[in-house]
Write the structure tokens for this entry.
Amino acid sequence: MRPIEKKPAVFVIFGGTGDLNSRKITPALYNLFLEDWLPGKFSIIGTGRTVLTDDEYRTNMLEGINRFSRRGKALEEKWAGFSKNLFYQVSDVNDAASYASFTDKITELENEWGGKANVIVAPQLFPVIAANISKNGLCDDITKTRIVIEKPFGNDLESAKDLNKLLTGIFDEKQIYRIDHYLGKETVQNIMAFRFANSIFEPLWNRNYIDHVQISVTEQLGVGDRGGYYDSSGALRDMVQNHILQLLCIIAMEVPVNFSADEIRDRKVDVLHAMRKFAPNDIRKVAVRGQYSGGWIEGKEVHGYREEMHVAPDSNTETFAAVKFFIDNWRWAGVPFYVRTGKYMQRASSVISIQYKDVPNSIFPSESSESWQQNRLVISIQPEMSIRLQVQSKRPGLEMTLNPVDIVFDYKGTYEADSPEAYETLLLDAIIGDQTLFMRGDQVEAAWELVMPILNAWESKKSLSFPNYSAGTWGPEVAEALIAQDGYHWFSLPDNHKKPA
Ligand code: BG6
């Protein structure tokens, strides 16, 4: 177990009656409690406008845990131990006076515990909340108060800058924990272990050996009931600006000097700074968009995006985006990084494929290698959690026949224990004050800077072809063309990995 000092802690969750809390935050805190990661003295105060008693709030949270926790239904005895630390306070985030109620609650707890607690607040509507927290004197002690913020962090570069300015006017950067939940995923953290705890990959991790990189995060879900949010966001803002660029940074970053939060985040910012900034005329060559029409997902007929709840019937919002990025530095000059993401795609799969260059001269006769493929390192983030190195091998028999096979590290076959949910990792890090897996303000701004020319181009020019892919497919044809014009195709893991015949 990580040696951590378990100081008393109070969590204040704004949006306490919201979906994110019942699905992710409280189940994650409950699982941390089960594994004895939470301090002995802790309290979780949910706040929201809905009028609820503590008991009603506890019942709602229990339902959330029973439905969404990776550990399944809560055990009665454990739940009793956890739930006595759960409280609810009605509050209107816009009304400075209503903050007094949970400030009083915190003071009451501190008096009972006989010492000051760490206070961790997880707000969604954070500009007004941050200002009001400050007015109520909750963030005066840099070492004791932390603010954990969910995405979206701004809607464009300007709004992200404004938010950073506002936050850093109230908090020290060391108190601000901007969540990108992809960074908490077990498989994503493992990319760093894989790259920097093994000596064999680094010599092959550059333009001399790598032909191109693909990062593909496809989802099988549509926008569901999030149309209101999504229609003002779109795939580029929702997935590329944050999750996908973070994955790209971890793949492309230089070797950090140590594992400290700022060193790692500095190296990631270096990548963002080295990435090519697109001019308006470049956009059509490097970025394509798509929007789903109705179709079939696993045998069930589904609506098109424009028919979704809270979505404009003539919406120009993209539900699919693919971009070809370049990193203009010594390690990566000339190596394209293709990224794609979309909703209602054929399969849910988040995969990074690093394709190596071909052998300089093949000594085998062409008939021996009909299914010849370049070496590929495939990091599968979800749902399969694995790393595969694709190599050529001789098929057993009297002839020299080559075919590609995988050298596989699969979490399932290697580890018995379940992986923690991203929010468990991230909330524990916020408790202990480790910012490594959180976004620093300059990182967020650098990522916005990079996607702004694409957003501007797409916003200024309505797509005439939307909707341009059917739900349940691999996305629009333009995405195939984007990569095919360079002689490649999008890589996807086969549904099940069959042994070669
Ligand atoms: C969120 C996006 O940040 O990530 C959602 O807002 C998306 O639209 C989700 O569905 C994907 O996360 P995961 O962990 O399910 O891959």
User: Anything to note?
Assistant: Residues 9-150 form a domain with the Rossmann fold fold (CATH 3.40.50.720). The pocket of 6-O-phosphono-beta-D-glucopyranose is lined by residues 151, 219, 238 (CB under 6 Å).
